[in-house]
User: Fold this.
Amino acid sequence: MDLLITDTLVVTCDDERRILERAAVAISGDRIVAIGDTETLRRNWPRHEALNGRGLAVLPGFINAHTHTILTSLRGTVEDWDGNAVYSYMSPISYTMDDGERAVMAELGCLEAIRSGCTTLVDPFRHVPAYARRMAAPGLRLWLSENCADIDTRRIRFGEYAVDEAFGRTFLDRTVAGIEAFHGTENGRLRCQIAAHATDNCSPAMLRSLLDLASKHNLTRTIHLAQGADEVAAVRAMHGCTPAEYLHREGFLGPDLVGAHWTFCTRSDIELLARTRTQMVHCPANSSRRGPHPVLIGLIRDAGITISLGTDNMTEDMFQAMKIGQIVHRGGRGREKELGVTPQPQDTLDMITRNAAGSVGAAEEIGQVRPGMKADLTLIDLNQPVMRPLIRPVANLVHYGHPGIVHSVLVDGQFVMRDRRVLTIDEPALLAEAQVVTRRVWERMIAANPDIPPPPGGLRWFDA
Ligand SMILES: [Zn+2]
Assistant:
């Protein structure tokens, strides 16, 4: 749309990290065409619809660089369970669902993401082509990928790590089907990545096939890297090295690869990852649920690695990711006096804007408020208690922000939420449907997998 947001506070996240007061942002179609002084822009764009931005801050739309929206189906269940939830619950529940059920849970994730100020989700998962269009309908910008594996992720919880070529082929086929069906569609809003699920479920042959696909289609890549102790032990048993060393040996590291987590990366792994300019996506809130995330984040930052933030499982709340991330990142190397207090709030905000845009190769399109960029914007309500006093707006936002301060969200120059009303989703209907679907899926999963216990405390279904 053609829109002029006037008299507002613009947190640009541009190269100078400028914060402009009483400024205006002009949007034509799907692009930002100008930012600057309100009176000048009013004169230059007289026919644009005016939105009074007094009391609001305009920021680049938040980018969740690693999430799995469908796993909202596990919210409130396994967070407090001490075991390998990836293979004991996440894989089984994803296979239990049908495509319609997957679409409902993905839409629930999109709704929460919009209310949390997100404009972009990077979501590697399974069976993606069947629900990608429905997931795109609420209007978010998406990088989707089929999380490929050729070791059956349904058997790993029984300690079985046999390579199954046919199993792997289905993922490669779905990867190609996704690229052909939707990559670059919806005005470029819906795109693909290449995803290897994890280092313990992809053989060298699978990694090679994925490298070929990435190079053939010119796509960025992602993988879960050293997420769990079980993964590290399995890779050691199969390949005789660490997960990072295994990927290096297979030629899989590089600047176009984003590794999630790095929880058990060693000092020499970090040197290797830095040398190959591999990027990191960190999910500090999710990874800290059972205690502060033990990742060597200070060393990772010292090594100059580019870090983006994600939420991973059961939440789309990027405020939580920033808040907990900042704490984890400040504590990850001890508190040596000469280091000062780092990262600073703007560094943390960069991790969900500029850095996250770079993680999917889109640093020239999204992640900043400047002319020429896509009009993906998050509008924050400054008339909220946590935003006063207003002295360092980014500090308020990172230390104290929460989804309740998000006023409006635009993607591609279109409002998906305006003045707190989500325009693209029937919220009451979706919330009711998500409860029904989740109950059905949990009951089916437990009936079909007698070894999977109900979560701690059991499954009691409350009416809302
Ligand atoms: Zn993940």
